Each structure stands twice: as structure tokens, then as C-alpha cells.
Fold this sequence. Notes:
Layout lengths: L18 E5 L2 E5 L39
Antiparallel strand pairs: 1-2
The structure holds zinc ion (ZN) (2 copies).
Amino acid sequence: MAKHQFQRDEDGDIDDFAFDVEEPGIGHNGPRCTVCGESICHHCEPKRLDEECPGKWIQPWPKPEARTV
Ligand SMILES: [Zn+2]
Ligand SMILES: [Zn+2]
């Protein structure tokens, strides 16, 4: 099994703001896998950044288009 293939920014670095969620008093952001769609908060779940990717799209929401900056 391969690891998550995280979305990269234009410099080729993992995009830590591929998802960005605001909640009252706390914010979550982190990379999103381009294979399975899993988004992992690098504040709350840093250990999951290194986990294995299921290899297919698992998220209920539509696949996001590539971000253009
Ligand atoms: Zn993945
Ligand atoms: Zn978080």
C-alpha cells in the first residue's frame, strides 16, 4: 500500500492549506490526499499524515478541482 499523495502547491511542497475549516475558537487546516480525498488536520492529527492511503476516493463530497493560485 502506498501512502497518501497529498496535494502540492506550485513549489512542489505539500499544501498545508488544501483544506481550511473555521470553527468558533479553533481552526483546522492541513493537506488533502489527491487519491482518497482524506483531509488531515496537521494540528490535530499529525501522525495520520504518514498513514497508508486506501487508494480510492472515500470522501462523500465531490472531488475538489485543483487549486490554482
Ligand atoms: Zn489517500
Ligand atoms: Zn485540527
